[in-house]
Amino acid sequence: MQEFLQNWIYLIASVSLIGVGLYIVLTKENIFKIIVGLNIIESGTNLFMVAIGWHPNAVMPIYTATDHLVANGKVIAADPLPQSLVLTAIVIGLGTTALALTIGIKIFEKYGTLDVRKIKEAEE
Amino acid sequence: MTILLKLIQGIGVGALSIAVGLLFIGIGRKITARIQRRYGPPPIQNFFDIFKLLSKRSISHGFAFDLGLIAGFSALLAAVVFLPMGQINIFPHNSSLIMIIYLMTMAYLGMAMGVSSSGNPNATIGIARALTMMMGYEVPFAAVIFSVYIFSRTGSLANIVAAQSGGFLNWNLVRLPFGFVAAEIALQGMLGEKPFDMTIAPSEIASGPMVEMGGKYLGFGMLQHSIGLFIETGIMVDLFLGGASNIWIFIAKQFVLYFAALMINAIMPRFRIEEGVSFMWKFPLLLGVVQALIVVL
Amino acid sequence: MSIFNNAALLIGVPLLFAFSIPLFGLISKQLTKWVTLFVIGFNATFSLYILLAHKYPAVVVMGNWVPPFGENLYIGPVAAFLVSVISIIGLLIAIYNLWAIKLGDVTRFSVLFLMFTAGASGIVLTGDIFNLFIFMEITGISSYALAAYGPRRRALGGAFKFLVVSSIGSTLYLLGVTLIYTQLGTLNIAEIAARINQTTPGLLTFAGILLISGLAVEAELFPFNGWVPDTYTGAVSGVSASLSGIAAISGVYALFRIAMTVLGRDGAYVFTYGKLDLMTVIAILATTTVIIGELSALSQKNVKKMLAYSSMAQMGLVAVGFSIGSKLGVYGGIFQLVNHSIAKSMLFLIIGVLAAAGLGEKVENFRGLWRRSPFLSLAFTIGAFSMLGFPLFAGFWSKFAIVGASIQRGGWYDFVIGLVLFASIVEAFYYLRIVTYIFSSTEVKAPKIKVSLSPAIPIFVLAVAIIAIGVYPNFIGNFSMQSAGEFTHKMTGYVLNVIPTIVAH
Amino acid sequence: MNSNLIWLVALPLIGSAVAAIVVRYKFLDRLITFLTFATTLFVLFSVHVGQSYSWGLNFLGTTLNLTLNVSHLSIFMLYISIAFGTVLTFYSLIDHSRMKGFLLLLILAANNWIFMSNDMVGFFFAWELMGWASVVSVLGGREREKSRHAALYYMIMSVSGSYSMFFGIFTLWRLTGTFSISANIAYLSSIVGIHPWWVLGIVSLFFVTFMIKAGIFPFHTWVPLAYAYSPDAFTPFLSAVMSKYGIYGMLLFMPLSLMERGFPSAFGGVPWTNYIFVWIGVITAVLGTVLAIFQDDVKKLFAYSSLSNLGYVVAAIALFTPVGITAGIFHAFNHLLFKGTLFITLLAVISRSGTSKLSEMGGLWKKMPITFFTFFVGIASAAGIPPFNGFGSKWLIYQAMIKQHLPFATILLFLASTGAFMYLFKAFHSIFLGQLSHDYDRVKEVSAVGKITEFFLMFAMTFFGVQPGYILKPIGAIVKSMGLKPLPVMANGYVTGMFSNIYVPLISWSLAVSFTLGFILFFVSAKHKYVSQENNYTAGQIPEDWGLTPETYQFSWNFYQPVEKLFAPFFRIKIDGFFRGTGDWTKTIGSAIKEIFVGNAQMYAFFAIVGLIIFVIAGWMA
User: Fold this and answer.
1) Domains of chain A
2) A89 touches chain C (CB under 8 A)
3) Which residue of D has its CA nearest to C292?
4) Would D21 be classed as within a structural domain?
5) Complex ipTM above 0.95?
6) What DSSP line would sit under C302-313, residue for residue?
7) Full-prediction pTM beyond 0.90?
8) Number of Cβ within a 10 Å radius of residue D447
9) Which residues of A touch D602 (CB under 8 A)?
10) Do the two chains A and B touch, given a threshold of 8 Å on CB pairs and at least 3 pairs?
């Protein structure tokens, strides 16, 4: 059970987060809730990326003790690359969120509503 | 020399056709009168009439009026020389039936142009009726023509006549009986006799095309009518009655056809124009088509 | 593998200037627009130099980490060609913007526009699928913001729709990248391309679907293209022009770089590895897009929205061309992509000029335009005729090639192209409707429309380009052909140029 | 390699560019157009059969050879089209309609290219070029809104046709790997015995295009609209020259003889495919005639008349016998001449009277006598009256039909011909004869340029009527180049048929003599005097206080009303309704599909997710 959890829990969590986020995006009508939903989807993705670089018995990927990195001819170090990817992704997500919030505020100013279903122009 | 000879022949044929046509009309007037228990004019009355009309002063509506009536007369005169009649056959290699028919069309066009340019609505109505009727009778007649074409394997009237030589049983009248009946009805329309005389219906549209004609114009109209009569009956003789060995027999055969037309004319009322066309497209066309089918199959 | 590190300037210079533009903005707002113009001008010159001096194929190596270990840019025929097109159209739009962008925050508009161009160039140049994601996001974020620019509120609505759909798309793409990474442990396009058949087919299929779905958002394929009409209509015309002229190029490029180079399998017709042939999937999507786009445009009364739907349909047509997978098809696709960018950005610019002159966006407002502005009328007609693929205009040759390639492939592509041609008839109707309105007369005497020099230049240049390509297709055709070779022969055309030592597995 | 061929295409293109620059000055535009046409005609004198020119186009990854090739057919078509264009553009110097000369020159370039091209790429290029240039030309008729609709309608038909041909071209290319027309025709001929249906399918793709362009039933619906509402100066070209592209294409792409080997015969030894096509031609002829009879717009009337004449042509060439082909091409030429003339005279009349409604005109013959005579010769030709030029070809067509023992088709064609006489006279009467309305008291004859043109056209119609050999000889060469035995041409005056010969000069001599006699008789008989038109049975009185005017006496409204009932079934044919219905249906679907884009971000996200899920499921299943 523990092993199962160790192997799969992050994946399950990330998929659940994506699902929850999608649910929010698709069902909530409030713009800010939708933005929150997008953020949750993003977190799920990030979690997924971090998870793939990790396994329960991994060691730090730093060449301090050479014999720890490789055991039985297999690399046991955690993969550092996904983490850097995630950092980038988080930054990008931040940018998107900030922009989305700005647009959201502007929308409230101009349309007078936050209901995403009402952000429509009359047929012109 | 040949050219001169042909020219003289042609003029002779023209004169003959006019004379015969006028005579036929004269006889026709007499016969009709007798049927109607009148005394009737003498058969040569038409010659006097023509002479009288041509020597009368008259009014015209302009050059189109003149030209149209001259064209109506002259184009028929030009067509009649191509008609083989008995031993008289001026251009034996150039007597395509369709050509003659189209050449006659020019006369109708000229006539129509002339009388319409007068601006009298009755004349135009008459012309419109004439053209409509033409569409009516030409369709069954075309069916008959094409049957004859296919049957005789030639389109030249001279050759069609030649193909019927050798006695009564070789006549297309016997060989193509349905076609003959259809053509006979079409001829009634062509001649403008009752029941197909709505073109000139005197009581409705004041004689239609003739309404504005007077003096020599009416004379030209009569001349045109007489040549037209001659050509139309002549074509029928060539097509169905095996032509003739000499011109007198030819004229006799023409007279037989004209006589039949007169008889029908004398006893029939007049169709309305659309009734006339639809009649033409029912019975005669059916006969013509049946004939064409028999020939083709 | 030849190395040409200077090419990194194509991305570096615009980005550098993009973030230093606020400094220029302190001096003068006008200056920022001119800086944008010159920077993109530099890009255009430099990329044209690369293209015409035949500096490609070359690799830009970052920090001496040779691929597959480092991140790299790859300048193949495709990149050289498309970057040239992107920067030239960018340059022309920048010239237009000199006149058009007056209100609001000019400085930040310039920042965003430079970022947008840099991002689009980056997508085309990069040799790394994660960098592709980053550049996509740079383009994306700047284009959301650009789309929201302007005095009218509908810009905001459009931008928000774009943002939501596009975010989901990039998330899907990122998931796909991650899945590929778990399998192969690398992010380098060339290496992935060479080793793609070492992956588990099931997972590869799933990853491929995620990637394609994510990229289809930018490539405007149905059902991922819901944002298109509202965003294009909402944005100011210069931005709509850049979206259809620049973003669309990079979007389609990314889609088919992944589908054909990364996932594809060489052959007379390119298929993809995995359980499901993604090229077929794309073909179905593309055909649907064409039909839906054209039919939706048909009953549209708003010209700008009509052009938006038409963009969508045209991108579908481009994707149909690519998805055939033969050299001829890809050739037609690229050619059509370029022609569409030229013509559609010109049409949007014209709409912008007309809107500024107070002309409405309805079809009826175009009535009698010929009397008011012959120049714009002619340019619009030229653009429309190019869209319809009439001879003497650029669109003829590309449409000819796409139809030819489809029928050459035969089979069910006969039906695809039949549907596409049917849709083209519809397209002919609605474009011609506008053109006939332009040349018909009005009862009301309206004043002439004055077109100032700065918007006139790009419109004139683009119109002349359309006719030039139409009369002499060889120039663009040659580059399209070379580019097509890079797409259809992934080993010789792409992978071996980046990593000469790699062995295909 | 004969570089003079390329000038036939390049010269009009250059001329077009120049004319487009000066398009705002109408006279300059027209002048350049005319000069270019004349120069092209001059260049054409140096072109001979058998010349060819090809240049490479680096396209589709290979070097495509675009080939120009002059065959007997092409040189014939080139001569007649360019010569007519020259006459028309000469006339258009004095014309004020909104025809654009540079578009006409674009069409000329396409025209020359179409007629010479021996590769399908060039052919298609030129075809499309001609298509859009003519569509844009149609815009700008007198009635703007109607001409706009007509242009759109024409456009849709034209584009549909091109796309059909597009498909056909590439299908052939897939099969043979070459774009050369002659090679592909040879290929089709070689496989027709094995796969007749396959060949028929490909040929049909081309045929739809050609039928649309020529306006053959059931694709005739655009013809009346486009003809009636195009600029008056463009209509002659549209009717006379552009309708022949379809005929040319049929002759070129469709060696109907190849069907003989593939399909069983129907009646009269004609293969089924050809037989059907003969009937399509016959239906077109009859339909065009019947609809023409009841038109009030004179341009529409003659549009239907064109339709009818092209029906004749198609019926004749579909027989694919020597007589049939000869008759078909001959009639195409005759139609070009007389219908071009008629439309040019209409242009003169409409420009003077300002209307094209028959019911509003009348009595113009005194005002425009030369136009009147030209029109008269024109309708005489169109009615097929010897010695004018329409006769020989109609006569040959009947011969060809009877030769194949097709009596019903012939009867119907004859009906169409008689009907033609009806509508021609209707137009003649309503425009020129009858009462002159006071509105037209100030109408003048066309100026000198127009008179020269009209005299020339009258001369041409009579000349080619009397001397048909000048046309029949080149047609004989065409027929020979198609592998058929040409009809003998004994002398220039002869028309030689299967059943009999006609020596047309004889007819004209006979007419000359009889007309002389007629005139003599007319002038020797008693004098006449001219009276005004109102001096007819109204006894010179038109009481205006009763509201009577000369127009009251003009009988032109509902001219053939009594026969309308007879043709009621024809008016129930709703081909046009079918096309429009398809259009409306497409529009409805379009509006429905547009509703997909609801304008809600959530829905768009939903679509994306649903699409993704469908793919994932598909991937799972695969």
Assistant:
1) 2-118 (1.10.287.3510)
2) yes
3) D593
4) no
5) no
6) BHHHHHHHHHHH
7) no
8) 11
9) 25-27, 29, 34, 116-117
10) no
